[in-house]
Prior knowledge:
Layout: H1 2-11, H2 21-37, H3 40-49, H4 54-74, H5 100-111, E1 115-119, E2 124-128, E3 131-135, E4 143-146, E5 150-154, E6 170-178, E7 182-189, H6 192-198, E8 202-205, E9 210-213, E10 217-220, H7 223-245, H8 255-266
Parallel strand pairs: 5-7
Antiparallel strand pairs: 1-4, 1-6, 2-3, 4-5, 6-7, 8-9, 9-10
Amino acid sequence: EKRQEANKAKRSFSKPRDKSDHILAFRAYDAWLEAKVGGYRQERAFCEEFFLSSNTLRTISDLRAQFVEVLSDAGFVQSGRGKRAGIIEGHISNQNSTNIKLIRAIICAGLYPNVVRIQNPDTTYVEQAAGAIAQAPTAKELKMYTQNDGRVFLHPSSINFVDGDFVSPWLVYHEKQATNKVFVRDSSMVTPYALVLFGGDMAVLHDKGEVNVDDWIRFSASARIAVLLKGLRGLLEEAVAAKLAQPESDLSNQPVFKALLELLAFE
């Protein structure tokens, strides 16, 4: 019963289109920060209500502050000093901090090549007054595969475990666990554009009308779209290299980043 209550509490942080354990954790952490503003009692009540560990959340907060300081020392961001140490200052570094589609792409970049392909069953239809309507598959009807393991299974602790309706047939995951089956833990649905732009080696097969990544992640694409994607990826890589060479430089208004945000927003 307690486990069911905890799972229900955990799912309350997830939105229907998230399909992500990582975004769920992000939302839970943000909600904890808001509760924390109200003082110790409010923070404690929040953690008890949602079955969260205050100590774990504080550890995450400390690690986050340390990471900000590392970025600040390297010149990538401006952070506070004294009591505000570990807090990013200025609007530029935080202007996309709530852009879930960008965050999803960053998760893809960070976890690649840990990729799962979802295979949907044959579509079935339900007759209704307005005509036949396609029925979404159930979680048990889905089959999932990685490049090297063959079939794998989502771990029951994942927010995606009971979900059968994925807009994109691709997931990234944090780790695998092998028992009598191979389970993947902490998964997030990712989109084709994220995989093409932030995945492995990209190839354009004009004769097949296809883009593939690392010779197994394949997408149909016209020659024009494929060439544009390859060009955008090249410009992104150049911009990242320029930022690494000069961390203090402000590239936030570069057209390539605006194009990336518009592309991800469209998908």
